[in-house]
Write a structure and sequence with these properties.
The structure is a single chain. By secondary structure, the protein is mainly α. It has two domains: 101 residues; 124 residues. Helices cover 61% and strands 0% of the residues. It contains ten helices and no strands. Helix 1 runs antiparallel to helix 4 and helix 2 packs parallel to helix 4. The two termini are 26 Å apart. 28% of the residues are buried.
Length: 244
């Protein structure tokens, strides 16, 4: 929730970069009254959201507090382009910190950290990719939900979500379906072998739990049964290679 709010603030702040103009009596570019008011509103909103996501007096809220109290919101001393860039950088820094917080491993019952199914750095890399062709927000959310399911021993959900990721990303690799990725995508054999493992074993495990009707007796899956972490990471690395 905080991520999407902060992303929206960053977008609105960036839109102000093109709103600076040079007054007739000055060579210094400035914002008009409406844009100055919007700038201050966005800085105040940003501080509020960063506080909610990271707690008060964090490394990003303090400079944002200073910025929202600048004298530079009046007609005679408007915010400068550099101050706008600083505000954008501060909100983006807070956003990255919230993202890191959201992908931290969950605590196990004994107090130790449960290893993540999807590497936190891999998720952060995907969050920072900027591409006009593909919107990666759903992919990032699927990966976050895989980690949540895995941390809570929700093994059937983990398998289903891994399958969802494989199907979701196929167009990025130029394929309509994931079986096409596994069998037709031009790549080294090591990559193809991992994709065939995902398409074969992972899909069968996920389908079994998705479509198996109730039976007289059941044995629930273990973490080992749904462990496709290496192959999934190879797939995500290839997506990053293409998009970066």
């Amino acid at each position: 929730m905080y991520e999407s709010q902060m992303e929206h603030v960053v977008e609105e702040l960036r839109a102000l970069q093109h709103r600076f103009s040079k007054p007739l009596d000055s060579s210094i570019p400035s914002l008009d009254g409406t844009d100055r008011a919007k700038f201050k509103r966005l800085v105040i909103e940003a501080k509020s959201v960063v506080d909610a996501g990271l707690g008060r007096l964090n490394d990003f809220s303090v400079p944002l507090l200073h910025m929202q109290n600048l004298r530079g919101f009046g007609a005679w001393n408007p915010p400068t382009p550099d101050e706008l860039l600083e505000a954008i950088a501060l909100v983006e820094g807070g956003l990255n910190q919230v993202r890191r917080k959201n992908v931290q491993p969950a605590k196990m019952s004994g107090g130790s950290l449960s290893p993540l199914y999807v590497d936190a750095q891999r998720i952060l890399q995907l969050q920072t990719v900027k591409t006009p062709e593909w919107d990666l927000r759903k992919l990032v959310r699927l990966l976050q939900e895989i980690n949540l399911a895995h941390a809570n021993d929700m093994h059937m959900a983990t398998a289903m979500l891994v399958r969802a990721v494989a199907d979701h990303v196929s167009p990025i690799l130029g394929c309509r379906t994931f079986p096409e990725v596994a069998n037709n995508y031009t790549a080294p054999r090591s990559f193809s072998d991992q994709m065939k493992h995902l398409d074969g074993s992972m899909r069968k495990v996920a389908d079994m739990h998705l479509h198996q009707q109730v039976r007289k007796s059941e044995v629930l899956p273990s973490a080992t049964q749904v462990d496709f972490k290496p192959a999934l990471d190879v797939l995500l690395a290839e997506i990053l290679r293409i998009l970066q």
